[in-house]
Amino acid sequence: GQVFCIYRCILHHRKEQLSTDGEGRAWVDRCQRLSLPGSQRWAVLMVSGGHFAGAVFSGGVAVVHKTLHSYVTRRGQGQSQGTRDQHGNAPKSAGASLRRYNQAQFLEHVQDIISGWSEDLAGCSLI
To answer: What digits encode the pLDDT tens for the residues 65-89?
Structure first.
């Protein structure tokens, strides 16, 4: 037989219980549904530490895609300035102010991208 690797989150939500029979028929059915026409438009969105990457794929081809990077993390600390500020006694340095400003701008840019892709995202069967 053949072996396939698929991210579990593509097949079902983690809170959803997927019944399994002895042969895993429920899983096979889900995999087959992924290949049906009309279910092959997916969006992948990732955000972490001042980095954004997003794309909408139709049949394996990128329809739209975008990446962003912004200086929002504290060098050597590995955390965003906003996370540091939440712990109280927020630093008032020029670097901290710059990171706060960049974080607000970064969030605004990501929101603009997502709203610009609203029609593409509305047509996705999986985000």
So the answer is: 999 988 877 665 655 555 555 556 6
Strand, coil or helix: 5: coil
Instruction: Write down the catalytic residue from 2, 32, 40, 81.
Output: 81
Beta-carbon neighbour count of residue 85 at 10 Å? 15
Known catalytic residue: 81?
A: yes
| Distance of alpha carbon 82 from alpha carbon 96, whole angstroms | 9
Structural domain spans, the chain: 1-35, 38-122
The pLDDT mean for the chain works out to 78
Whether 27 contacts 21, CB under 8 Å? no
pTM of the shown model: 0.65
Beta partners for residue 80, in sequence order: 73
